[in-house]
Amino acid sequence: MDTDYGGFKTTTFDSVVNWSRKFSLFQYPFVTACCGMEYMAAACSHYDMARFGAEIPRFSPRQADVLWVVGTITHKMSPILKTIYDQMADPKWVIAFGACASTGGFYQNYSVLQGIDRLIPVDLYIAGCPPRPEAVLDGLMELQNSIQHDGPKANGITPTAIRHENQKVDQLNRYFEISKKEVFENQQNPRSNRVSKPGFTYSEDFINVSPHIGYDSPKMQKDKAALKEE
Amino acid sequence: MSEEISTKETEVAPETGELTALLQEEFPDAVTGFHAHRGDETVVIKRDALESVCRFLRDDSRCSFEIMMDLTAVDRLEMNQTPRFEMVYHFKSLTHARRLRIKVLLAEDDCKIASIHHLWKAVDWYERECYDMFGIHFEGHPDLRRILMYEEFEGYPLRKDYPIDKQQPLVELKEVEERHVYGRHA
Question: How much is the ipTM here?
Answer without folding.
Answer: 0.79
